[in-house]
Amino acid sequence: MKITFYPLGEAAVKCCFHEDISTALTYNIQAFCKKLVHQKHVGISEWVPAYDSVAVYYDPWKLSYEEITNVLVPIANEMDAHEKKTKTVITIPTVYGSDYGPDLENLAAANKLSTKKVINLHTKRHYLINMIGFLPGFPYLSGLDERIAMPRLESPRQSVPAGSVGIAESQTGIYPLDSPGGWNIIGRTPLKLFDAEKEEPFLFEQGDYLQFTAISEDEYKQIQREIEKGTYKLERREESE
Amino acid sequence: MKLFSVEKPGLYTTYQDLGRVGYLKYGVPASGALDRFALQVGNILVGNERGAAGLEVTMQGPELLAEETFVMAVTGGDLSPMINGRRIPLWKSVLIKKGQVLEFGQPRQGVRAYLTVSGGFHAKKYMGSRSVYEPAGLGRKLEKGDELVGEPRQQKAGTGLFFTEIPDYDRDVDVRVVKGPHHEQISDKVVSDFFAMTHDVSPQSNRMGYRLQSDLATNHEANVISDGVPLGGIQLPGNGQPIILLADRQTTGGYTRIGTVIGPDLPLVAQLPPGGKIRFKEVSVEEAQEAAKQEEQKLRIWERFTR
Fold first, then answer.
1. How close B251 comes to chain A (CA, Å)?
2. Does the first or last residue of chain A, that is N or C, have fewer Cβ atoms within 10 Å of its Cβ?
3. Domain B172-295, CATH 3.40.228.10 — does that match?
4. Is B83 in the A-facing interface, judged by CB distances under 8 Å?
């Protein structure tokens, strides 16, 4: 895979892959990051995968700019084969509509669909996590059906509850924290995308897939109780491509 | 044990260490002291590891009642620290006795001071760090009545930094910048103006970033494919007002970045008050690394004297 480097100051480097954003590129970036995990190279502290690049943070005391690029080129060179044969799909139980999804009806009307059809189209697909950013645990997802795309709200809400599932343009996403926001909120998941008290505070990472599944309000409350007790088991499965 | 109780919390006082490592990929800001040099020296002066948690004090300091006798130090900006109404020296460890009150007065130079205590503050750790990041519920700023705890060692006070090593936090600073990654998307004219002019610090500056009032006549496409945003990254949005991104920055961003302020110069930025002035000077990545190494070497040598 062709790679170009840009220094981000003295302690980070941007590895740019100069390819159109695609599922294959996201897989390659995921593989690139996995290599960094396995290599545990001295001086590399962390990295941030994005749509067509990875920012790698390192210690200039241990690695010069030239040395870090020499470490990264061979890793990129191995990435060409789309080796990925299975994908991880995580289920996101979601209540659609009513107070949980105040914009569902508007979105349905604007797209000349029934709310049932919107839910059907939203739960049908697997969404690929291209990147996590903006807020702790916020997934940038691709793969939304264009028939349920919708511009952002004209005036953003002061506060959107954590777990809210929204649509903005042709993207869908989940708010991990209570925060202001301008996405059309169609539902809410009881899952905690970010829980600082847990050993593993996050449910997923770049390269995983999410699938939404419609649940009732009762099921929402049941899952919420299970999460509080620590007995809830996240549905995570491996599927072949 | 209880070290201090909080009589007045001050404007914005938070625990900070050197930040969280390993969670940027999940969208969690690194956080940590904005003036990393001052925090590290503060810790060295009281015999701690350089990354122990101290209190970052902003503009208007807190009033803290000592519940124990122990060694502490105040470094960073001069916010007129006093014990029982008497000025104490900055950049020098001092003994505070049970029943004495540490308070702060007028800001004289810089806007952020660091209070370090022997043994460090034992605040709750989230994901390996005690740095407060309120938007995600990772700790909170000090409030009246809070009790600050730690385990100080028995030790002597009076360790100070040699005066030539004390930073001068001017209101008008030159900072070094490594260009990139999006400078090629910005016109040569705007890039050269950016390096030639003096920029004013806006009052809307905080731990996330310092906003500058520069009125650069930008005409580039300011949106880019989102990428990881480094500490010190300088965003240049379409409105021509740059933002220097600091410890509480979002982990990724979608605006063009003209360059990155080098680590050793970030304290100069973070100590500027609103209305402060900045000029940028381009350096190569090699020069930036050399500067970072020299600073690290100094800190290592000082650490060896006190531990």
1. 6
2. C
3. no
4. no
